[in-house]
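Exercise 7. Predict the joint structure of the components listed below.
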Amino acid sequence: MKEFNCDIHIVGGALTGLLTAYSASKLGYNVIVSEKKKINLNSKKITTDTRTTAISEGSKNFLESQGVWKLIKNFAEPIKQIKVIDKEVKANIDFINPKAKSNLGYIVKNSKLINVLVKEIKKKRNVSFLFESSLHDLSYQNSKIIGFSNEKKINAKLVIAADGKKSAVRKLLGTNLFTKNYSEKALVVNFLHEKPHNNIAYEFFLKNGPLALLPMQREKNMNQSALIWSNIPKVVDLISSKGLQTEYIEEVLNEKIFKQLGNVLRINSIQSFPLSAHINEKFYEDRVIYAGDAAHSIHPIAGQGWNLGLRDVKSITSLLIKAKNKKYSLGTKGFCKEYNALCYYDAYRLFEITDKLNWIFKKDQKQYKFLKKIGLSLINNNRAIKNKIADFAMGI
Ligand SMILES: Cc1cc2nc3c(=O)[nH]c(=O)nc-3n(C[C@H](O)[C@H](O)[C@H](O)COP(=O)(O)OP(=O)(O)OC[C@H]3O[C@@H](n4cnc5c(N)ncnc54)[C@H](O)[C@@H]3O)c2cc1C
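Solution:
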């Protein structure tokens, strides 16, 4: 068995794991990232994920402080306006940015985010990757935590579990969690269209679930957007199944988006994701902290899932700075508990808000429709409330 030593062992090398590795390496920690997938770091296509992430202004500020935003911004399309439309009750809300010189958010392809992070990490001498390394056991010795994965033994002072919704670390340590199964899937389609999107993001509340249209960067001088539609699995499976003719899919999309973006000209990619949400009972164990989807996952209705993960990375970074300044020792109980105190409430609040938003907008009984109509027009006519919601969405 090959043995490795490091300060921090990050389990999972996707968005959360990579950003954490990058931020920790900047502070001089020795980091090992173990990732179960086989990834070729020199390949142009590191991930098959065709999703986009809506990055809030607050997240952008953190990425800026870490020195990576200047690289990501080349691939980021600003959101200047958000229109919320409930077709059932015929009510709208328009959000524009209450603050000058900043946007409501930015749309970036996940593949671009990952490519930028990998490229920057590859320049660091204190980060090593172990691919095809699926963590299957953990044990403790003195002040070390030892991870075992595929004939490898990794000794560390701290394990950061960034291994996603189905976290292996969580299963191994028996950390409890609360879950919500939505019996829905998200259809994610990237497509080219006739009319410019004018940097407007749309959120339509439809009977079966919300549909978001997000402005993407132009591709070869053509207008491009992403559609994320939460719907019953039967519909999503039908549209994303390979057997369906492109013309039929275009027809379905045109019915939803024609007014805003004109005709669909080409479909670039279609993927689907089962939707569920969870929050761990706590975000730490002995010498372990949970970050990103390993700690919490939420309904994508507000595009906030990774923004929350990014806030975890921000908290980890601030604690790593404190550990450098000898305020805490890396991986000790005090360190891990402080992390939990910094992140838990924020995550719990968003877990509940997104769950309730999805619930209320799917209700189509008369009394709920009436309440939604009143609520939406109240918000739309009150600048102070609108600005507060915009600040919340921007994460500032
Ligand atoms: C349809 C949809 C749209 C979304 N849109 C947005 C949005 O607009 N804005 C936003 O902020 N968020 C959005 N999200 C949420 C966002 O995609 C996730 O929060 C984010 O991708 C989570 O990243 P992660 O790195 O924490 O976890 P993951 O991406 O799940 O990565 C976990 C990694 O760990 C690895 N791994 C798993 N088990 C092991 C093991 N045993 N050993 C080693 N490695 C392991 C996996 O291979 C994987 O690489 C969306 C989600 C969905 C479903």
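Discussion. The chain has a mean pLDDT of 89.
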